[in-house]
Amino acid sequence: MIAKLLRTLERGPLHLVIILIGFLWLLPTVGLLISSFRPEANIIHSGWWTVFAHPFNLTQYTIENYQKVLINTGIWRSFLNSLKITIPATIIPVILASFAAYAFAWMKFRGRNLLFLLVVGLIVVPLQMTFIPVLQIYAKLHFSGTYWGLWLAHTGYGLPLLIYMLRNFMGGLPQELFESAFLDGASHFAAFTRLVLPLSVPAIAAMTIFQFLWVWNDLIVALIYVGGSPRVAPLTLTISNLIGSYGEDWQLLTAAAFISMIVPLIVFLSLQRYFVRGILAGSIKG
Amino acid sequence: MLKRSLTLLLITGFALVAMFTLTSSNAATAATAMAAQGRTLDFVTSFAGQELTAFQKVVDAFTQKTGIKVNVEPVSRNMATVLGARVASGNPPDLANLPNPGLLDTFAQAGNLVSLDWFKQTAVFKEQPKAFIDLGTLNGTLYGIFPVASLKSLVWYDPKEFAKFGYTIPSTFGELLQLQDQMVKDGNTPWCIGLESGAASGWPGTDWMEDFMLRSAGPKVYDQWVAHDIPWTDPRVREVFQLFGLFANDGMAFGGRKGILSTNFGDSVAGLNTTPPECMMHRQATFILSFILKAHPKLVAGKDFNIFPFPSFNSGPAPLEGGGDVFVAFKDSPEMHQLIEYFASVEAQELWAKVNPGRLAVNKDVPASAYPDPVTAKAAKILSSAEVFRFDGSDLMPAAVGSGSFWSAVLDFVQGSKPLTTILCNLEASADSAYKSGAATGPVGNCK
């Protein structure tokens, strides 16, 4: 009884600190959320915290910002475009990276370490540097302006980090497992599908979230490879156009930000039980 | 169990990829089919929000008239990146609007732009003011046209407040100084100034100083200053900063220095029409009209707010500063010629002025009746009667100075945290590394 009480007391400061950090972390987002429900004129004249003076005075809230964003801005089309871009550009690199990671971790071939070093080295290449040379190739292959080209680009940009993280995770699996599997006559493919894949689910899920968020939030890669016309533009571009040439419509941005947050939130929440385990991927090398 | 769900996941994944691949390859073939017809122009634009909607309307009218389709690609603030990459990779758009003539020079010197000299033979050429044709010309070749512009040297005020206190519109700089002293005596705050603009904070101050430079030293020195033929440590540049200090100061502007620094440029104008008014005057370009109406939707242009040109030092007509987008072409085609001619025409600009409040038509033959309100019509009249017109100087300077150190110098100066000599020396140092030409580039300034 007393021990329990003591433990609670001991943990009190810790909880307090965690709550405080959580509060500070959330504060900007809460402010954004409240602003998104305030009329434009109020946003200019007073801060979002002033709603707490009369929190139940409903006249100070409005859904006009959401209405304006959802109607006549082409946001639905770009929402679909974003899904069309993001889903393949997440699945393709994650699948390829798992294959490659297995090969780097458990298949013996000449130049394996050199090749792996090369892949790891690619992580530090700024993607802005690749735009012009890649576009030159795309122009010859008639790839620019198509989703094909964009998926390929996102795959290329995502692969080095995904391979690195997954290889380190898969490399950490116990060697005895593979020895007995190979003794029983398992091929590499069987070892990969029956052993490695089931054991790597946390890491793969975590990498899927990383890659998904990165592609979903991307503006510049899409803009460079498929262009800005509304037919193909992703959500990020449509939202950045909402704000206006002089930034005069930024109240629309508050509502649009929450609309674009929905999908990443769903993805994150549905995969989060893997995420916590998977975030340790590669942190301890076996 | 786990294995099965994973296999399922993989299969779904591949199926999804296959599905999207099919749908998108259809879209791709459609796009190539359209290009094969040769009737679609690709236009990369930096217009966004309401300006984009207005631009799209002007373009739609062109498509309706000629049957030529225009694919408008809004890229918002990423103009330089997108154009740079597309031009370098050999896949430029047909046309684009560049936010300043400095970019035009860059692309033209690299040989990326198509000459528009044929435009001089067209009927609409005579309707273009020489000042804007000169701005689109480099080394005798015309590369760009300005369909619409904005006028910057304007002071906004509330006529009702002016009538109440018996204030008259100043016609010289001296009268303006007297007027603001009178306002202070009456217990009013003369100015609303807001310098905050996110990463671009400080830019409204550069417009003030450019207006002072045009007035105190004249257009010739202004050009030398922009070209870096005189150093930032020049006494005439120093004077411009000091003049700005007469306005952006405690007691002269609402909220004092702190208020000036922390108020957003678009929000500060709202102070003209609050009850009681926070200030009597606001210096800003034509586009601020939409911000006034946003803050106070019920106001009537001409009755509740009006404009006068920022006065000159002598009694002559005020020299004017403005800005605008220059339209350039990267690929030559008969359709492009038609579109350029259309943008320069009275027809297009009349429509444009109607759908985009705050944008002034450049074509001299656009009637005042084209403007939806008397204030914009007045601004257009001021612009068309200009004797001296200069493009926004900070937009012409290299980006490291004009959209970098100059902005932060404005903030430092208003904050008063550094002596003016230090601020100017820092500016000169950044200009020395940013400019490729200019007589003052190099160790000329007397900074240690």
What does this structure look like?
The complex is a heterodimer of chains A (286) and B (448). By secondary structure, chain A is mainly α. Chain A has 2 domains: 61 residues, no CATH class; 210 residues, Orthogonal Bundle (MetI-like fold). Chain A is flat, with a radius of gyration of 24 Å. Chain A is 73% helix and 0% strand. Chain A is built from 13 helices and no strands. Chain B is an alpha+beta fold. Chain B folds into 2 domains: 169 residues, D-Maltodextrin-Binding Protein, domain 2 (3-Layer(aba) Sandwich), CATH 3.40.190.10; 207 residues, Periplasmic binding protein-like II (D-Maltodextrin-Binding Protein, domain 2), CATH 3.40.190.10. Chain B is built from 19 helices and 14 strands. In chain B, the strands form 4 sheets. In chain B, strands 2-1-3-12-6 form a 5-stranded mixed beta sheet. A 4-stranded mixed beta sheet of chain B has the order 13-7-11-14, sandwiched between helices. In chain B, strands 9-8-10 form a 3-stranded antiparallel beta sheet. In chain B, helix 8 packs across helix 9, helix 8 crosses helix 10 and helix 18 packs antiparallel against helix 19. About 3% of the residues of chain B have low confidence. The chains are: A mainly alpha (286), B alpha+beta (448). The interface between A and B is large, with 51 and 53 residues.
